[in-house]
Sequence to fold (804 residues):
Amino acid sequence: MALIVQKFGGTSVANAERVAHVADIIANTYRQGNQVVVVVSAQGKTTDELIAKAQEINPNPSKRELDALMATGELVSMSLMAMALDKLGIPAKSLSGWQAGVHTDSTHGASRVKRVDAERLRNELDKGNVIIVAGFQGINKYDDVTTLGRGGSDTSAVALAAALDADLCQIYTDVDGIYTADPRIVPDAIKIDEITYDEMLELASLGANVLHNRSVEMAKKYNVNMEVLSSMTGAEGTFVKEVTDVEKLLIKGVTKDINIARISAMGVSDKPGIAFRLFSLLAKNKVSVDIILQSVGRDGTQDISFTVASKDAPQVVQLLEERKDTLGLQSVVCDNDVAKVSIVGAGMETHAGVASKMFEALGEANINIQMIATSEIKISVLIAEEEANRAVAAIHDAFYGE
Amino acid sequence: MALIVQKFGGTSVANAERVAHVADIIANTYRQGNQVVVVVSAQGKTTDELIAKAQEINPNPSKRELDALMATGELVSMSLMAMALDKLGIPAKSLSGWQAGVHTDSTHGASRVKRVDAERLRNELDKGNVIIVAGFQGINKYDDVTTLGRGGSDTSAVALAAALDADLCQIYTDVDGIYTADPRIVPDAIKIDEITYDEMLELASLGANVLHNRSVEMAKKYNVNMEVLSSMTGAEGTFVKEVTDVEKLLIKGVTKDINIARISAMGVSDKPGIAFRLFSLLAKNKVSVDIILQSVGRDGTQDISFTVASKDAPQVVQLLEERKDTLGLQSVVCDNDVAKVSIVGAGMETHAGVASKMFEALGEANINIQMIATSEIKISVLIAEEEANRAVAAIHDAFYGE
Fold:
């Protein structure tokens, strides 16, 4: 007998028919002799509809009240799911975030789980019940309802799995696992059987968009075995865990991120401390900087280029323009038509030639590399946005082709 | 400075526009220097929609899960109302049933409030907040969400008013008070300024349908001053309290109830204990019997007639038919086309002639009285259903005419 946490997203529970389908999956897991804790999201577009309802009444609602409102979506899903299981003869009980003992900090709208008081969960499991927990929510120390932000139900599932020392945390989604590239761009993309937490984190932050990053961080911290799988096919998905098999793929995935912009501060005076002042200004304004390229200067000046998220770009340009004089820079240029294409794989640190293979593939495809950044398990290049899909395909072909 | 509890029903908060209108009422009360606790119902038809959603998934859902589901309707209302007040610059905080400390027994779907732990409510009021409480709901000793049944938000409001020792509990509705008769039947019906708890209870149980009976019982028990008023007109409504003024109306209202049936057990053997056995059989089956008429027997038999709620009539007929022999009765007759018309007034016990005036009015209108029942503050007659409206009008005219 294993203890399994299963998470189902909003699409999987969007209507009565899908709720019944998911109930069948849960019932099968239970009938195989497992203890089951289920985490559900709000049905379909419910959360967006609730936000629209709030906007109609107050365009700038308090985050506390918005959390109280949004959290109702998952409460509806959880009770409907319990009813669906009851109909199948499976003893089931729904628990809201607070009933399930999910305690968070007080950052309404983006709370972090602090602890899970699992006493009630254990009692209900011991009674033979399947537990359906409302995802995405918890309570803070004031007994106010909080929400965990976009994708928060993944985090709920991992937090419960960690607290209950579950054998497996299954994240059911509309894809049947993690792929070596987006199958819409690369039809030959391969489903990965196993991937490490670190690889998954790099893939998620690079825009692979399958798992919520915070959930993977938490899974790594508490060593929770995760599986990403499809609620439609029922086939085995991708396991995310600490150690992967020996016969691992050299790289686990090729990804692209087009939501970035390149900012260039031109003609910066070539004096010590200028770069420091520039980047501490951005840090103070909570702008995350990714790849940095500092050109070798001539005529006593240099250019500093860096990438930021597209949404931050206008603010960054304004900040730099306002401080042109104090920073001693001549002009600021912003390019939104760039993309970051990356390869991720824990294997690359022990394999020489991965970077050169990637650059060679891009060169043969006649794609110009603007900037490069590397880490132990990742290599990223900045290229023109219009060439992003072609770059992903070319790199994928170089590593997995034939 | 007074502490006022204000309750708004589902129609009053049905959409963004109405929520804004109610927020204005609350804001005015607050700006006049009062502490305000607001109780809201679910928006419009939300509760019915949630029940339909449940039915689609499981035609016979568990009452625990149905409670968890239905309670979300009021959670949506409470947060939207807090947002609307926030927009008006009024500090407001929403609290669910459990956050407001509303503890109930475990009869899911029809729970009774056992106590209100008002500590948090008092703290939030002391901070200067308007508190918006989700009506209709509480939690039981297992920390499960419960609901109080139809009209339960009235009970929530009175329970909170009692716990906080509020000066007034205002029940906002779509009528502007309690009338001496249903204005749709009797256009001359008069709005009552004040009415006692007992009178209100008789009126409510007789079908006046303005206040939930349980809320009036609780108001009486804890001596909570209530006011029934309209959220549209803003005019003073009807006060429900212990002692009314001296210049009180002789009778407070004329009501009809058509949801009853008359059952006649014919030819019952005229032996001691038969009536007892018959009514204890009904009590054991949780059927409430109202008016009873036992005819004088002849030929060693008698007829026993009594009224029950229409919905119970088929069960009663079946019970009696099955036990014809043991009860020693010849036949069972059920008449659904009857109505109970009643007058209510605490004044009638000290005024002779009230009953005769009522019967005279019916006689002049040529309406036949089938059965009569009286209490200290009420006289009811059973008549043919088709004559009910005419009876109400005739009686009302006799007492209030000219």
Summary: The CA atoms of residues 373 and 380 of chain A lie 5 Å apart. DSSP finds twelve helices and 18 strands in chain A. The first strand of chain A starts at residue 3 and ends at 8. The interface with chain B takes residues 16, 19-20, 50, 53-54, 56-58, 61-62, 64-66, 68-69, 71-72, 75-76, 78-80, 82-84, 86-87, 93-94, 96, 98-99, 120, 143-145 of chain A (CB under 8 Å).
